[in-house]
Amino acid sequence: MVLIGRPIGELRRAYDDLNRTLHELKQAQQQLVHSEKMASLGRLVAGVAHELNTPIGAVSVAASTLQKGGQELQKSFAEGLQRSTLERFLQRNDEGLTIILGNVTRMAQLTRAFKQLASDRASTERRTFDLVELVREVMLVFALKLKQSPHLVILDLPDSLMLDSYPGPLGQILQNLIDNALIHAFEPGMQGTVRVRLDHDSLTRRCLIEVLDNGCGMSGEVLAKIFDPFFTTRRGQGGTGLGLHITHQLAVDILGAELQVLSSPGQGSQFRLHLDLA
Ligand SMILES: Nc1ncnc2c1ncn2[C@@H]1O[C@H](COP(=O)(O)OP(=O)(O)OP(=O)(O)O)[C@@H](O)[C@H]1O
Ligand SMILES: [Mg+2]
Questions:
Q1: Nearest CA to ligand 1 atom 6
Q2: DSSP letters of 219-270?
Q3: Residues 120-158: pLDDT tens digits?
Q4: Which listed ligand is nearest to 242 at the C-alpha?
Q5: pLDDT digits over 205-214, tens only?
Q6: Which of 35, 164, 256, 259 could form a disulfide with 251 if both were Cys (CB 3.0 to 4.6 A apart)?
Q7: Nearest bound ligand to CA 178?
Q8: If you measure from the C-alpha of residue 230 to the centroid of ligand 2, how many angstroms do you get, rounded to a whole number?
């Protein structure tokens, strides 16, 4: 030991230094975990904003068509209105309003889902919620990404699955796992499939949340380290290596769940989360 034979005061100082460094490191780690959470919230905002664009566009087109129709009707009033013109106007009016109403309803659904997801993310509150709805809300985050990617996410869900748990952390876990599959599992040029599956056992009162991909899988060496903080195979390409560390922390410490991973090279990866329904 290098320290043997050193005066006590020097040892004390070295010990204090080490403690201070450890404290600073812990703080830095907490800050990184926090900024990773903020980044994933940012992706969510981008996803929802993109989803809102489609109905907003449709409403705006339909509204300007209605406006034009109204102007034409006014003109034909001056020229002597014919019954057929009025009938055509009324029919187009009805069609336009149907489009507007349908899209406004969709926007309201999206904003509601987003508000729920955002407030869940901000808190670690426990409540009763529908896991199927949560999965669908999380998928909003990926809408834009999936439109621009060759990969497919298949949802294998029951009609509803009520859970008394923590929707915020659970949403974050799902987002991290799906995100990882889309980023890491598929080589360029590949067309991959990610499957999100929910199942439950009413006897044991437990449920299973599964995210699996048919991608390149992981070697034993990688698999052994994936939950370590800062372990990433994409350093310098946007990976912080905190995603699965946070996922594990949330799953085990907050949800009280078991998180299992099955993966081997060329065989895809399967993340399985087992947790109590209540
Ligand atoms: N579905 C998957 N297929 C193949 N490899 C994966 C998969 N999921 C995770 N990995 C591997 O596990 C590593 C750690 O994942 P983790 O989510 O912790 O970090 P990251 O995705 O690299 O970075 P971050 O999530 O912080 O942006 C990844 O770098 C990747 O090598
Ligand atoms: Mg990740």
A1: 184
A2: -HHHHTTTTSTT--S-TTTT--S-HHHHHHHIIIIIS--EEEEEE-TTS-EE
A3: 767 778 999 999 999 998 998 888 889 889 999 999 999
A4: 1
A5: 999 999 999 9
A6: 259
A7: 1
A8: 10
Question: Which residues, in sequence order, are CB contacts of 232 under 8 Å at separation 6+?
Answer: 239, 240, 241
Stretches in the chain below the pLDDT threshold 70? 1-6, 40, 44, 113, 116-117, 121
CA dihedral over 36, 168, 216, 259, signed as positive or negative: positive
Question: Ligand 1: which of 180, 240, 249, 269 to mutate, judged by most atoms within 8 Å of the beta carbon?
Answer: 180
- Residue 204: the pLDDT is 94
pTM: 0.73
pLDDT for residue 124: 76
Q: What is the 248 CA–ligand 1 centroid distance (Å)?
A: 12
Which residues, 6 or more positions from 62, have their beta carbon under 8 angstroms from its beta carbon?
Answer: 96, 97, 99, 100, 103
Whole-number Å distance, alpha carbon 181 to ligand 1 midpoint, is: 8
Residue 232 CA: nearest ligand 1 atom is: 29
**What residues are neighbours of ligand 2 (ion), with CB under 5 Å?**
180, 243
Q: Can you tell me the distance from the alpha carbon of 12 to that of 10, in angstroms, rounded to the nearest whole number?
A: 5
Structure tokens at 261: 């991973």
Q: pLDDT at position 193, please?
A: 98
Residue 182 Cα distances to 147, 149, 212, 242, 270, angstroms: 12, 9, 11, 16, 13
E strand or H helix at 94: helix 83-122
